[in-house]
C-alpha cells in the first residue's frame, strides 16, 4: 500500500514540481501515470523510491513514512522496490547474468540463492539463452528486459517504471508490457509513468493524470486522454 | 560482512587499480614524492630532536646561597625552591665540594686552585633541575626573588637561544610535513574522484538496488589503502638505505663529540612504520573524501 498525503515538492532552484498530491495505491494495483512533459510524473515516482524527499506532506509505504525515513534506512526500502528506467541503466562491462546478479550481490545474498533467482527471472523475461551476452550485443527491448529482470530479482512488492518504453519501437513495447502484466499478476504493484497512448488505451488500467504538479484525473479503467 | 563479500571488495579494488592504470601511477607517484620528502624531514628532525634533548638534559640552574645564610635559612630556601611546581630535583653542593669539582675539571692545572682550600671564596649552591628543560628560565626568575638566593646562574642568553632555535626548527619541519601531507591527500582524492566519476553509473545502480553506503565505500577504501601503501614502499627503501649509509659514514667521526645520531635500530622500524602508516592514511583519507560526494548520508 502506497499512500501520499498533501505532498509538495519544490526543487532547490524554486521549481514547484508537485503541488499538493494525495493518492492511495493498493498492493497489487497496476497504475499508469500520464501527463504532459514537465508535469511532474518523474518527480511523483521518485517520491516512492525516495530518490527525492517531499518538501512537505507524507508518503507511507507499508506503514513507513518516507518523508521521515533516515538516509541510512533508504537501502532497506530500495530492496523492496524495483525501479526501471527509459535508458535501462545496465553496466556495459557485465554480462546479462552479471547485471542481474549484481542487484543480489550488493545486498549480500548467498551465491547459491543468487544463481537460482537470476535464472528464474531471466526465464520470466525469456532471456535465459542470452545470459552470457553483453548489453551491447542485445536489442533495446532485450536490454530493457534485462533491467526489468534486475528490478524484480529480489522479489520486491512494488515495481516503479519511468517511461520504460520511451526508447523502444511499438512491437517491442508490447513485449515489455506483456512482462509487466505478468509481474503484476503475481501480486506486485506496478506504477508506470508513460507517454504511450496506444498502450494506455489498449491495456486498460487505472490512470492518474498529472498536470502542473496536481492530479487532474484518476480513473479506475482510464484512457490516455491527451492528443498527441 | 560475509567472506564472499570481502573477496568481492578486494577483487573490485584491484580491478580498479588496473583499469585506471595511469591515474594509479600518478597517485602512487604523488605519495612517493611526498613521503620521500616527509621521510627525509622526519629523519633530520628526529636527529635534531635527539641532539637537543641531550643538550637540554645538561641544563641546570645553580643557585648560589648567600654567605650569611644559616643552616635553617638554607633549609627554608630549599623548601621554597621545591615548592615551585616545575622543579624536578634540588641537590645541595657545599662550597668545598664545588671547589673539588673545579679543581678536577681543570685537570693538571687545577692544582693551583688548591691554595684556596684554606680560604674558599666559592659559595654553597643548590643545583636545580626542572622537569621540562624549557621551564629553566621561568624557574630561575622565580628563584632569584627568594631570600638568601644570592646569584642564580643558568647560562643566561645561550639557553634562551638554544630553546628558540630548536623550537623554530621543530615548527618549520612540522609545518612542511603537514603541508606535504595535505598536498598528497589532495592529489589522491583527485585521482579517486576521476575513477569514481567513471563508475558513477555503477554507484547509482548500487544505490538503486539497495546497497548500503558502507558496501559502496569498501572497494574505494581498499583502493586508497593500496595507493598509499604502494606509494610508501619506495620512500621507505630510499630513506632507510640513505640513513644507513650516512650513519656508517658519520658515526665514527662523531664518536667523541656531544652530537650523536640515532642508532639505526629501532629507528629504522619506527621510520618505516610511520611512513607506511602515513601512506595508508593519506590514501584512505583521500579516497573517502571523494566517495563522500557521491553518497547521500
Ligand atoms: N532535479 C531537479 N532540479 C530542479 N528542477 C527539476 C529537477 N527535476 C525536475 N525538475 C523540474 O520539475 C518539473 C517536473 O519535472 P519532472 O518530474 O521530471 O516531469 P515529467 O517527468 O512529468 O516530465 C519540471 O519543470 C522540471 O524542470
Ligand atoms: Mg519524466
Structure description:
The complex is a heterodimer of chains A (228) and B (297). Chain A has 228 residues and is of the alpha/beta class. Chain A has a domain at 91-139 and 146-154. Chain A is built from seven helices and ten strands. The longest helix of chain A is centred in the last third of the chain and has 16 residues, at 170-185. Chain A is globular. The mean pLDDT of chain A is 95. Chain B folds into two domains: 3-55 and 161-292, no CATH class; 60-153, 2-Layer Sandwich (Alpha-Beta Plaits), CATH 3.30.70. Chain B has nine helices and four strands, in the order H-H-E-H-E-H-E-H-E-H-H-H-H. A four-stranded antiparallel β-sheet of chain B has the order 2-3-1-4. In chain B, helix 2 (21-57) packs across helix 8, helix 2 packs across helix 9 and helix 6 crosses helix 9 (264-292). The relative contact order of chain B is 0.16. The model of chain B has no long low-confidence stretch (mean pLDDT 85). The chains are: A alpha/beta (228), B alpha+beta (297). The interface between A and B is medium-sized, with 22 and 21 residues. The complex binds adenosine-5'-diphosphate and magnesium ion. Chain B: It is found in: Cell membrane. Chain B: The chain crosses the membrane at residues 21-46, 172-192, 225-247, 267-286.
Amino acid at each position: 500500500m502506497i499512500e501520499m498525503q498533501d505532498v509538495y515538492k519544490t526543487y532547490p532552484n524554486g521549481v514547484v514540481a508537485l503541488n499538493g498530491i494525495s493518492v492511495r495505491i493498493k498492493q497489487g494495483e497496476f497504475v499508469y501515470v500520464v501527463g504532459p512533459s514537465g508535469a511532474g510524473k518523474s518527480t511523483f515516482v521518485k517520491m516512492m523510491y525516495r530518490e527525492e524527499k517531499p518538501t512537505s506532506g507524507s508518503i507511507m509505504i507499508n506503514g513507513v513514512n518516507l518523508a521521515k525515513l533516515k538516509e541510512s534506512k533508504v537501502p532497506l526500502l530500495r530492496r523492496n522496490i524495483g525501479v526501471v528506467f527509459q535508458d535501462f541503466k545496465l553496466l556495459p562491462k557485465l554480462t546479462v547474468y552479471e547485471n542481474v546478479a549484481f542487484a543480489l550481490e550488493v545486498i549480500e545474498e548467498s551465491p547459491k540463492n543468487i544463481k537460482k533467482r537470476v535464472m528464474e527471472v531471466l526465464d520470466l523475461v525469456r532471456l535465459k539463452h542470452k545470459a552470457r551476452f553483453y548489453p551491447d550485443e542485445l536489442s533495446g527491448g532485450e536490454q530493457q528486459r534485462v533491467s526489468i529482470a534486475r528490478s524484480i530479482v529480489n522479489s520486491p512488492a512494488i515495481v516503479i517504471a519511468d517511461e520504460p518504453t520511451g526508447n523502444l519501437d511499438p512491437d517491442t513495447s508490447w513485449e515489455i508490457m506483456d512482462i509487466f502484466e505478468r509481474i503484476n499478476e503475481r501480486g506486485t504493484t506496478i506504477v508506470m509513468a508513460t507517454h504511450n497512448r496506444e498502450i494506455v488505451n489498449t491495456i486498460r488500467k487505472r490512470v492518474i493524470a498529472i498536470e502542473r504538479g496536481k492530479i487532474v484525473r484518476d480513473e479506475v479503467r482510464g484512457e490516455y486522454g491527451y492528443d498527441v | 560482512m560475509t567472506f564472499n563479500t570481502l573477496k568481492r571488495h578486494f577483487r573490485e579494488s584491484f580491478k580498479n587499480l588496473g583499469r585506471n592504470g595511469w591515474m594509479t601511477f600518478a597517485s602512487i607517484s604523488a605519495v612517493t614524492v611526498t613521503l620521500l620528502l616527509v621521510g627525509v624531514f622526519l629523519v633530520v628532525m628526529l636527529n635534531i630532536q635527539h641532539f637537543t634533548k641531550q643538550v637540554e638534559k645538561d641544563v641546570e640552574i645553580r643557585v648560589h646561597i648567600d654567605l650569611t645564610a644559616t643552616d635553617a635559612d638554607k633549609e627554608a630556601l630549599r623548601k621554597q625552591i621545591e615548592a615551585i611546581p616545575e622543579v624536578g630535583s634540588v641537590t645541595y653542593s657545599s662550597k668545598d665540594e664545588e671547589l673539588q669539582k673545579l679543581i678536577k675539571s681543570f685537570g693538571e692545572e687545577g692544582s693551583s686552585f688548591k691554595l684556596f682550600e684554606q680560604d674558599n671564596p666559592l659559595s654553597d649552591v643548590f643545583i636545580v633541575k626542572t622537569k621540562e628543560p624549557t621551564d629553566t628560565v621561568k624557574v630561575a626568575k622565580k628563584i632569584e626573588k627568594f631570600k638568601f638566593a644570592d646569584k642564580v646562574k643558568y647560562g643566561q642568553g645561550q639557553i634562551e637561544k638554544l630553546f628558540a632555535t630548536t623550537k623554530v626548527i621543530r615548527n618549520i619541519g612540522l609545518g612542511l610535513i603537514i603541508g606535504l601531507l595535505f598536498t598528497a591527500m589532495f592529489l589522491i582524492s583527485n585521482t579517486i574522484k576521476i575513477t569514481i566519476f567513471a563508475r558513477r553509473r555503477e554507484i547509482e545502480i548500487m544505490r538503486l538496488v539497495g546497497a548500503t553506503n558502507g558496501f559502496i565505500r569498501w572497494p574505494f577504501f581498499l583502493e586508497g589503502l593500496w595507493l598509499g601503501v604502494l606509494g610508501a614502499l619506495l620512500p621507505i627503501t630510499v630513506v632507510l638505505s640513505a640513513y644507513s649509509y650516512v650513519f656508517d659514514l658519520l658515526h665514527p667521526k662523531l664518536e667523541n663529540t656531544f652530537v650523536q645520531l640515532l642508532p639505526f635500530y629501532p629507528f629504522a622500524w619506527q621510520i618505516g612504520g610511520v611512513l607506511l602508516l602515513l601512506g595508508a592514511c593519506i590514501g584512505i583519507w583521500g579516497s573517502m573524501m571523494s566517495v563522500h560526494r557521491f553518497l547521500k548520508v
